[in-house]
Design goal:
- The protein contains 26 helices and 32 strands.
- With 736 residues, the chain is α/β, with parallel strands linked by helices.
- Helix 3 crosses helix 20 and helix 9 runs parallel beside helix 15.
- The chain is globular and about 70 Å long.
- The two termini are 49 Å apart.
- It binds ligand MGD (2 copies), iron/sulfur cluster and molybdenum atom.
Length: 736
Amino acid sequence: MCADSAQDGPVETAESLCRFCHAQCPVHVDVEGGRALRLRGIPDDPVYHGFTCKKGRALPSFHTSPERLLHSQARHADGVHRPVPFERATREVAGRLESLLERHGARSVAIYIGTHGYNNLLTAHSALAFMEAIESPMVFTSVTIDQPGKAISSALHGTWMAGPPSLEQCDVWLATGTNPMHSMLGPVNPGRAFRIALERGLRLVVIDPRRSEFARRATVHLQPRPGEDPTVLAGILRVIFREGLEDGPFLAGDTRGADDLRAAVDPFTPEYVERRADVPRARLVEAAKVYAAGRRGVALAGTGPNMSGRGNLTEYLSKVLMTVCGHWLREGDAVANPGVLINWPDRSAQAVDPSPAWGFGEQLRVRDLGDTAAGLPTAALADEILLEGDGRVRALLNIGGNPLLAWPDQIKTEAALRKLDLLVSIDPVLSATARLSHYVIAPSLSFEAPGCSALSELLGAFVGWGYGHPYGQWAPKLVDPPPGSEVVDDWKFFHGLARGMGRALRIRPVSFLDPAVQAERATRLDPDAPPSTEGLWEIVLRGSPVPLADVQTHTAGHVFERTEVVARKTEGWGGRLDVASAPMVKELGEVSAESVGVADAEFSFRLISRRLPDVHNSSWHGIPRLRTRHVSNPAFMHPSDLEELGILDGAEVEISSARATIRGIVETAPELRRGLVSMAHCWGNGAGEDDDVHVHGGSTSRLSSTDRDYDPHTGIPRMSTIPVNVRPIGRSMEEV
Ligand SMILES: Nc1nc2c(c(=O)[nH]1)N[C@H]1C(S)=C(S)[C@@H](COP(=O)(O)OP(=O)(O)OC[C@H]3O[C@@H](n4cnc5c(=O)[nH]c(N)nc54)[C@H](O)[C@@H]3O)O[C@H]1N2
Ligand SMILES: Nc1nc2c(c(=O)[nH]1)N[C@H]1C(S)=C(S)[C@@H](COP(=O)(O)OP(=O)(O)OC[C@H]3O[C@@H](n4cnc5c(=O)[nH]c(N)nc54)[C@H](O)[C@@H]3O)O[C@H]1N2
Ligand code: SF4
Ligand SMILES: [Mo]
């Protein structure tokens, strides 16, 4: 599995693109003897300004890591994985899928597209085309265990065609439970972008129970109890209405429901918010006034509140805040990014009515869940595998994800993964899930395939994310895979499967076109004469605003000369944004009906999720230089809580929820509220594997339960704000 050492030779520097996370930073790579040695940012890049992170700078070492799979693997009867030629693995998987389809129908084959399925658009598009070819509706992604509230709230609220302002256009920003300083979800190079924006007068409101790296920069930081975001946001809306700070003409002309909204937020007085969420009332009023004083602004939420229960409502109230203040782009405003590789809808100053958020498409057999605007609920996929009867899922294709560590309810997930007739992973290492897989397809890595900036541009569809410029970059293939290896660009697996099953892939273009139009414009790949990977990029980006051939002349990032101004509302246009969507108003009513101040007799702490700066989910934990700041995932706790429990910094503790107990290594974190354990996900191992917490960390997914406290539509259970107890190892609760 070890790469041959490269021959020495002259070191050449080439431009490329880091593909380890969605930020897709442009980089200079030193290449010697056909091997990428090291990389750094491109200093004069007009958008990223030379930014890279430690993870990205470690990327060259992934290519030659001793952990890397240089051949696809098949698991043998003795449980050991051994190399198998790609052709043979694909043929065998195709055969087994075909027989499952024949015997059990299309629903028996499901796919899960994880982080590295999405980070590579060609993988995602060919995976979806494959599922269409076999007519299986069972497409699951990490979106429904991430921030499903984003798509749900857009559907319930309706969309504003002109879109949100870019950071450069904003005077105010309100962020609930996101930390772009570590996660890079937000504008690119967020550290620099926010520094410059704050210097020119941006006012930043951050709502986070932790004084995060982002919260430290805030004009106003509210540090409420976790899970109380709907209360805080409703309280802010109430202040805005009471003080008459809303944008009356916008509400009258382009929305419906303002009076119902005003009534729905009325119970959330500053006194009530203070009592319930523990936010000082004066700070709440200040936050509301700061936000409402802006002319253009953004309000968004992140993973924290999406995983803490009521994520749909938190995301919805964020959009409603933008609408109530009229913070969207308006007629005559400049569109910051008119599009380079992606076709965007017309940007007119008009609303598209709400659309169904749930209640359509495939129905699942458990918890009354079904398809949603965010996709099928991944939190229910383990049940779909475990539950006997017609329609049971028997095969799972895991594409660049790691279900065993990432899905909620690890105990159930593991039972499900082990029950599958066929589990296939595309993964460059023997990840926790790959170790359970019958086949593991070994993919090429970043610099071994051509890529481009389309993914980061697409992320601009979400409020507050993506490029604020018509920016584009093409990265040609830079190096060959290690000598003697057989790795493939991920999409070729789906092409091979389809071919082996006598079907053809129809690849849809990447764009925001209507799905029916996309289907019409799909390109059928010839089973016997597939395109090259570069050819497939041409296919998915055909008809882009800037022709791909032009972008390809820019192997370092480039800002294209494209301008667009938000157009006037079409004569007679009737679309309106809904600021009092019935299910959301009902949920807000349920919130205000809850009793306040009742202590949880059983659990004294709440475990909240967070990201660590140097690692990305479960990926590449084996690279030593990514584990110098934190060896694994510390259990961060407030020093006074540690003192009270008699726990020393660095000690091992047991963390118990109603579902399970895990171990953690505590680390003092004065930036936390008291009563919290802040811990990153995607660590630990499966049952029966080495569970040394000092080496592998603790698996927070084992603490959550998919049957308890879940969203009735997206199925996402509590993956943050999980009630837990903390106990030093070796001492009982009574002793502490
Ligand atoms: N370095 C690094 N970057 C990553 C990742 C990684 O693992 N490492 N993962 C990537 C992925 S998959 C994603 S989805 C994005 C996520 O990106 P973000 O959503 O920005 O994720 P976090 O950085 O974890 O920030 C979440 C914040 O929510 C807070 N929080 C927790 N619970 C609550 C709550 O109930 N209410 C409020 N208001 N706040 C709460 C936490 O304290 C934390 O500061 O990051 C991506 N980028
Ligand atoms: N408790 C709790 N649970 C959570 C979260 C949380 O905050 N708290 N966060 C949730 C979120 S936001 C997400 S997105 C999910 C993550 O869910 P997943 O996407 O399922 O998990 P990852 O760990 O990102 O999986 C990435 C996999 O891709 C592999 N990989 C790395 N590089 C490459 C590559 O170049 N090509 C290919 N093909 N594969 C590669 C890695 O080895 C790894 O196995 O976890 C969720 N789970
Ligand atoms: S932020 Fe993401 S894309 Fe940029 S260097 Fe780091 S890992 Fe690579
Ligand atoms: Mo995510």
